[in-house]
Amino acid sequence: xxxxxxxxxxxxxxxxVATAMTFAIRADLLGxxxxxxxxxxxxxxxxxxxxxxxxxxxxIVIGGLLVDIIGxxxxxxxxxxxxxxxxxxxxxxxxxxxLFVSTLFVGLANGFVEAACNPLxxxxxPDNKTKMLNRFHVWFPGGIVIGGLLAYGLGLxxxxxxxEMAIILIPTLIYGFLFLKLExxxxxxxxxxxxxxxxxxxxxxxxxxxxxxxxxxxxxxxxGTNQWITVLLSNVGxxxxxxxxxxxxxxxxxxxxxGPIVHKLNPAGMLLFSAITAxxxxxxxxxxxxxxxxxxxxxxxxxxxxxxxxxxGFVSEYLPRTGALGLSIMGGAGMLTVSFILPLMGxxxxxxxxxxxxxxxxxxxxxxxxxxxxxxxxxxxxKLAAGSQTLRYVAILxxxxxxxxxxxxxxxxxxxxV
Length: 418
What we know:
single chain
């Protein structure tokens, strides 16, 4: 059967939309549903949602090892089944552990999607890897925009959170059907004749290990903040889910036009620009209020736009012998660290909220306050201050990245491709 490059790319994008919608809808459900309906603390929510990230890490690393052996189609079949199970189990969750397990299945499915689709895109477009990986990853923020708008609309209609989750079944069924019909190629590593041993050895190169370390910080800055932002900015005077949509709309637009930027800056230059801009954006958001938050959020969004796909594109271009395993390790490293940053951010937010409350009165009086009361207003103000302080802590990450990418640019200028 003939390899249809365009249809395979479209199917990959739809699979990434399904993945992204799980992020957007989870972000919308963090406070009111997972916190209110299931009576979970922010730290418990962080652990529940964090399991999606280390589930992703597990799947993408296993998938990266197996994709050359069992083929991309089998990995995508695992993703499809995982999405179905995870979404249905989430709809019928009743508390911490059922939510934990269902989110794990969703995380595994998301990981398998990228374990197959990242090397698939690199294989389909060997001469434009960074550009096409950016275009493919348009549909992560694009899917968050779709999921965020649907969540906001369904919320206005009081449809219910279970229907929000069920919506994700639509792109899931579409990508499952498309990949079932299409023939998938062998990975670039297999067709180029690089052995499994050489691929594994390449993943221990100092430059690759350095990029894995940087992925810890870029993923935490982007995904950790995006997953919590609807909670951290819930009291700035703007519907927080719309801020999430706004951020990801900018990211989708930026990734659509990544080609000229890659040509002008090169991947290392793009990463340095992203780190500086993301750090400035986070600090500005933490000091903004009301509609002034929009401008600060736009700066942050521009900063994180190119992080994930450019990290993958850099590894694929400068360390091609790492193959599908290298891309999977990068994605897995990013998601693993986010699984730890989420509960950490939840703990910081909880502690900063308590610290911002009047210290002469029992904090529980405010934490259990009913909307419309004086105590609830004080709690809202404390949460606003806590969200700002949490974002200032997160801004430390892109500060470290700026130094790391300055070094990377210096190194690339002094050496040729590995």
